[in-house]
Design a protein that fits this description.
alpha/beta, 5-stranded parallel beta sheet, 3-stranded antiparallel beta sheet, 7 helices, globular
Length: 234
């Protein structure tokens, strides 16, 4: 189910319109209402070198009956990259993809470098009842050593390493102040298997109910500002 294309009249919307509860996609051309699973999206984020890719491969095996675990970089394609727009097309494409997968009843665990300010303002945010963030971080000297030890084809220059260390420091300093807050998991002194176990424990925790919100006006709802209903359980 494409969240921007009406299943009855075929109209293409600029942004999805979701009404809830219960969650339904509403066509802005013919007003057709299509039931829609609005599940949580789980984001395992953090700077390069903290173990996201290795952990995701472990989680695929452990969680295949309950979640769909995906690596964000698989869609890192030239047509979706736009540094001037903070790679908005890339991030929107991932939200649409995850929302379509959710219609199968299994939530997505998306592993890749992302932060709440990059996903929460997007029009497609309304397709999820919640987005939950867990960031893998590392002590800076260990992280720099890991990045310098990567194969030459990855082109880790000192400038690029410094940018990654800055992102690592930003996450460690601001995680609890972001909206929503980001949970931190330090991977400095543990093997990937232990990190995967801690990520799985995070996924198994019951979600906290979102705080009550004021009812959104129609323009706010169309832009993804509607209140979140309790998540469906897969």
């Amino acid at each position: 189910m494409h969240p921007l294309i009406c299943g009855r009249c075929g109209a293409l919307a600029e942004a999805p319109l979701v009404e809830s509860p219960p969650a339904v996609l509403v066509c802005q051309a013919c007003e057709h209402r299509q039931p829609f699973r609005r599940l949580p999206l789980w984001c395992v984020t953090g700077p390069s070198g903290t173990g996201k890719s290795t952990v995701s491969r472990i989680l695929v095996e452990r969680l295949q009956e309950r979640f769909v675990v995906l690596e964000q970089d698989v869609l890192w394609l030239p047509g979706l990259r736009d540094p001037a727009g903070n790679h908005r097309a890339f991030r929107s494409a991932w939200l649409r993809m995850a929302a379509m997968i959710h219609q199968s009843g299994r939530p997505v665990v998306l592993c890749g470098t992302v932060a709440p300010p990059e996903l929460e303002p997007l029009d497609e945010r309304v397709l999820f009842c919640d987005i939950r963030y867990l960031a893998l971080v590392c002590e800076p000297n260990v992280l720099a050593e890991r990045l310098r030890g990567r194969p030459a084809w990855r082109a880790w220059s000192e400038e690029r390493i410094e940018e990654t260390l800055d992102f690592n420091a930003w996450l460690r300093d601001t995680a609890t102040e972001l909206t929503p807050p980001v949970k931190l998991l330090d991977t400095t002194h543990e093997p990937a298997t232990a990190t995967a176990e801690r990520v799985q424990a995070w996924l198994d925790q019951p979600a906290e109910a979102p705080p009550p919100e004021e009812p959104a006006t129609a323009p706010e709802a169309a832009a993804g500002g509607d209140a979140l209903e309790p998540c469906d359980t897969p």
